[in-house]
Amino acid sequence: MSFILLLILNGALYLTFLDGLVFLGNVLLVPLFILFVSLIFNKRFYKISDDVLLVGSGFFDTHLTYLPFFKVQNIKMMQTFFQERNKVVDLVFQTASGEITLPCIEKSEAIKIYNYTLFKVESSTDLWM
Predict the structure, then answer these.
(1) How many whole angstroms from its chain centre is CA 104?
(2) Ramachandran quadrant class, 86 (left: phi over 0; alpha: psi -120 to 50; beta: rest)
(3) Residue 108 banded pLDDT, cuts 50, 70, 90
């Protein structure tokens, strides 16, 4: 999404000035883009305990999401063409309150999480409501 914003800004600068200022805009915008992406990447994590999945994400502050496994209604493994080449997948957990996504997890690790989640959901006696 940030990359699309960068392309739009570059296009606007190019059409507006049509000279060397586009290069100056890139010199200023590319380091900011790299900084923002690294901030988001460093804040993203997940931890699995016996009964709960903890997902952390954020930009400046860390947003924590606790997902008890018995509340999962559906789980999907999604993979784009580029992810397939790098052997990573996105895991999407669906609950009554929405979706929780674990992006770009190694495929072998994702299969373990997928199977463990299905096991916990099927063997749980807790009511999800």
Answers:
(1) 7
(2) alpha
(3) very high
Tally the residues of the chain.
Answer: 129
Asked whether 37 and 16 are in contact (CB, 8 A), the reply is: no
The per-residue pLDDT for range 78-98, each reduced to its tens digit, is: 999 999 999 999 999 999 999
DSSP 89-126: EEEEEEETTEEEEEEEEEHHHHHHHHHHHHHHHHH--S
- 6 contacts 13 by C-beta, under 8 angstroms: no
Amino acid at 111: I
Report the amino acid identity of residue 95.
Answer: T
